Amino acid sequence: MHELLEELLGEFTGVEYGELRYHERKALNIGVRQGELEIANSTIYSGVGVRAFYRGGWGFSSTSRLERDSIRRAVHDAISGARAAGKKEGTRLGAASLATGKFAPEIKEPVGAHPFEEKLDLVRKAEARVRSFPVIASAACHYRETLDHKHILTTDGARAEVIDSKPEFRLMAVAADDGQRVEASEALGVTGGWSDLFRRDPEEMADIVARRAGDLLKAEHPKGERAVVILDSGLVGLLAHEAIGHTVEADFVLAGAITQGKLGKRVGSEMVTMVDSGPSQYGEHAAGTVLVDDEGVVTERTEIIKNGILQSYLHNRETAGIFGVRSTGNARAYEYSDEPLVRMRNTYIEPGERTLEEMISEVKNGYLLKGAGGGQADANAEFMFSVQEAYRIENGKLGDLLRGVAISGQAVQVLESVDAVSSEFCFDMGAGFCGKGQLAKVDGGGPYLRCNAIVGGRA
Q1: Same domain, residue pair 240 and 127
Q2: pLDDT at position 459, please?
Q3: In the chain, what percentage of residues exceed pLDDT 90?
Q4: What is the distance between the alpha carbons of residues 275 and 350, in angstroms, rounded to a whole number?
Q5: Looking at residue 268, what DSSP letter applies?
Q6: Are 64 and 34 in a shared domain?
Q7: How much is the CA Rg of the chain, to the nearest whole Å?
Q8: Which residues, in sequence order, are CB contacts of 281 under 8 Å at separation 6+?
Q9: Residue 371 has pLDDT above 90, yes or no
């Protein structure tokens, strides 16, 4: 395939840039709910996405037919589209570190070495173990794997072969009693292999999620108030990704996000350094690991915020050209038939020097919040997230478990209020996908953060 694409690069005439991206995907999805097989599908598909750029205009075409004539037609369709769309004389793509060679993450024990029957048995047993707890009214377990193989070639020099493997595992439990229902979940997602994913025992995870649901069923609701809160890594990752990360994607910046025109301005306390990284840092196998983006650019560690100051947006080659900077390697396409968009990878806040115990001991009245649930944020960095577990802190001591908790606020104000950052760090968003017109596998995390936010309860 590489040789064929190399040959077809010569078809890009009359345009400023051409790109060929072959993508083969093997995917498996297994789900069991209430003891019944809910989903079990395996797919293999491939195709070529083609882009051309001319005077600020893009043309895109794709084909699932891999013979020379079909790809050649797609190239000429993309060229025609770019020439029709191109209007801005002098518009150029941004500079980039273009990838050449083969790129693959470290994979311990490939998931393909484990048969379908083993994976199905694992899912069935984990779901049954959750359901074995008397208080559990319903349970579900899902296993998913996505294996990608790409060849990315561009007329200006990218020649990359990319291998990727992203498995994930998720458990859900619903506890019920006297008309009340409470949900809890546990999930893992990595870039890597079987043993990279199951560094935690699935049976232990099943016990944790079932007990958590049972404990939450007996917990009280908090009152609503603005309070000192300590956020765990999952909530820090959600805040970094949803409330800040999307507002610094350069296409959103151009559309008027709150970060527009704020480079060099303070957007957090001096304790806050926030990063989006293609390589996995502060540990191996983060699920959003991308070694080469879908424009053939070698990815990097991009400091979005350094010591509270906004340093950089996230760029593909087009937005990099508009802003007069280099691409940060954030162009991503979910499938061969998708055009690359500016997307995050592993987005996190860097660790500090404190311990969680110290951070709790200094709080007179507040909350320890653990376990990110669903939520939303907007272009003004206003957010609301649900929380799985909340513990009241009184006079430096942890109190009872609370349920039905949500936090909200304006992300910049929350980051400006940060006064303690722990040395403990982990990624905690590896299961599931980010959506922005198309899916993308991402990860997020960080240390424990102490800050101020609105805690929502029944009253």
Answers
A1: no
A2: 53
A3: 95
A4: 7
A5: S
A6: yes
A7: 23
A8: 275, 301, 346
A9: yes
* 3-class DSSP state of 397: strand
**Among the listed residues 444, 433, 431, the one whose alpha carbon sits nearest the alpha carbon of residue 170:** 431
Can you say how many angstroms the Cα of residue 395 is from the centroid of all Cα atoms in its chain?
36
Read off the tokens for 102.
Answer: 């083969």
Same domain, 397 and 253: yes
**Domain range for residue 142?**
2-218
44-84 tens-digit pLDDT: 999 999 999 999 999 999 999 999 999 999 999 999 999 99
CA atoms of 2 and 4, how far apart (whole Å): 5
- The enclosing H or E element of 317 equals helix 317-323
- Going 233 to 236 to 238 to 241, the CA torsion angle's sign is negative
Q: Tell me the pTM.
A: 0.96
Looking at the structure, tell me whether residues 238 and 373 fall in a common domain. Answer: yes
Residues 245, 440: Cα–Cα separation, whole Å: 14
Secondary structure letter of residue 352 according to DSSP: -
Per-residue pLDDT tens digits for 201-219: 999 999 999 999 999 999 9
Give the CATH number, domain containing residue 100.
3.30.2290.10
Nearest one of 235, 270, 223, 229 to 452, comparing CA atoms:
229
> pLDDT digits over 138-153, tens only?
999 999 999 999 999 9
Spatial separation of the C-alpha atoms in residues 279 and 309, rounded to whole Å: 23
